[in-house]
Amino acid sequence: MTRIHVLVMAAMCLPTALSAQQSPAPAQPATNPIVQSFRDFGGHYGGLLLVAFDSIPASRYGYRPTPSQQSVGHIAQHLESANYTLCERIGGMKHPTGPKDSLADTIKATWPKDTLVARLRTSLLFCRDAFARLDDAKLTDAVPEGPPESGQTSPRVRSLLYFVTDLAEHYSQIASYMRLMGMIPPSALPRPNR
After folding, report:
1. 182: CB partners within 8 A, 6+ apart
2. Residues 192, 13: contact at Cβ < 8 Å?
3. In this structure, are residues 136 and 100 in contact, taking their beta carbons and an 8 Å threshold?
4. DSSP state of 73
5. Series of mean pLDDT values for 10-residue runs along the chain (194 residues)
6. 55 near 4, Cβ under 8 Å?
7. CA gap 104, 125 in Å, rounded
8. Are 116 and 53 within 8 A, CB to CB?
């Protein structure tokens, strides 16, 4: 069994294993079902993205199908940045930044694979914490959108939509890249028997 098969199986089985450890609740409506739906969707695609980026060889992080498309490394660093921007709005909290965060995207895109994957994973954990601070009643709250000086706001739910859409779109993109490189994307691997 290859490393990617093990990672995919772990990513797919972990939520089931965690839920199996909890005692069944009486049939009641879920608390915050809208937020939970976004959290589940984001967790699914975030997990697939981590497995995908982890399975792509470091030597292929400069790969792009055509010169006008983003490289694998560029997509990874973009996701990290977008996750922080959107999840700051979602959870009303700031992520800690350092000098490397202000570097140009073109420089970040060339960082080593391990750095890019670790930073993407950390951004997804930040998003998990942002979702933990949220409930359905806060979805219509106005939050900043666009450049800070613009003074623009939008309902918080828009940031949730952007977050899950961005993850799904970039998973589709990276899955296509993997196929072009002769790799099988994590979502296309055989699922373990349950």
Report:
1. none
2. yes
3. no
4. H
5. 45 43 55 94 96 98 96 98 95 91 93 97 97 95 88 94 97 98 94 73
6. yes
7. 23
8. yes
Half-sphere exposure of 35 (CA within 13 A, CB side): 21
Q: What is the number of other CB atoms lying within 10 angstroms of the CB of residue 123?
A: 21
Task: Give the angle 132-135-140 at the CA atoms, nearest 5°.
Answer: 130
Q: What is the largest CA-CA distance in the chain?
A: 55
Residue with tokens 């999840």: 87
Q: Which residues of 56-74 are buried (b: 16+ CB within 10 A; e: fewer)?
A: beeeebebeeeeeebbbbb
DSSP states along 136-192: GGGTTSEEE-SSGGG--EEEHHHHHHHHHHHHHHHHHHHHHHHHHTT---GGGSPPP
The backbone torsions φ and ψ at residue 110, rounded to the nearest 5 degrees and listed phi first, read: -100, 5
68 secondary structure, DSSP code:
T
Rounded to two decimals, the pTM is 0.82
- How many angstroms from the chain centroid is the CA of residue 102? 21
Supply φ then ψ for residue 111, to 5 degrees. Answer: -65, 160
Domains, the chain: 3-14+33-188 (1.20.120.450)
